[in-house]
Amino acid sequence: MDQSQAVAAVARESLLTADFDDSVGHVETQRVTLPPGLSVPRHSHPGGAVGYVIAGEILFQPEGHELRRLGVGDTFYERPGATISHFANASQSAPAVFVAFYALAGGQALIEMEPRPDDTD
Q: Around 19, how many Cα atoms within 13 Å sit in the side-chain half-sphere?
């Protein structure tokens, strides 16, 4: 098989296209494992994030949107700075695993934890 045939034989499936802000310096890619039953506190990603579920099921809800159940092969997008009010492993007995792509600029934090709506100072 020559080079052009090899390139033509590669199957590509577009999974998600998401706009980031103009100041993205780099993208950090991580495999993330959520232990059984773990619920991540309210948070945001200053530069945004895109994820692809590779094992298990995740309950995902950006603030102001409906709760979604994500399974193997599903993708999700977290707009830069958007509050994620619910992000949890849907299983009490098995881990959930996803690959995350975090857009970052300069010394920007990967994640910022946010107070619950009922927290008062």
A: 2
Distance of CA 55 to the CA centre of its chain: 13
Residues 61, 85: Cα–Cα separation, whole Å = 6
Residue with the larger pLDDT of the pair 103 and 56: 56
Q: What is the pTM of this model?
A: 0.81
Strand partners, 34: 96
What is the fold, at CATH topology level, of the domain defined by 28-113? Jelly Rolls (2.60.120)
| Residue 28 tokens, joined | 């950090």
Domain boundaries along the sequence of the chain: 28-113
The backbone region for 102, taken as left when phi is positive above 0, alpha when psi lies in -120 to 50, beta otherwise, is: beta
